[in-house]
Amino acid sequence: EGLGRDPHAGEIFCFRGRRGDLVKILWHDGVGMSLYLKRLETGKFIWPASGSGEAVQISTAQLGYLLEGIDWRNPRWTQRPAKVG
């Protein structure tokens, strides 16, 4: 509510840690508030910039890329897969 949004309306709220390697996600699943936390072993989450410090809306696909550690502005893998064999 401090963000001027209704947490019970099904919106997802994402917050990044200061170092950029941690993301916390809050959402209301209809029963109660849920918390999801993810920390990257290497690299940092590419975070959308807000010039005025306001909330930024991103699409479901962009959120998926963000949580995988992929630059959602230009989707492609940031780490090469290990060779097998």
TrEMBL record:
Top-level taxon of the source organism: Bacteria
Protein name (database record): Transposase
Record organism: Roseovarius azorensis
InterPro entries: Transposase_IS66_Orf2
Pfam (any one): TnpB_IS66
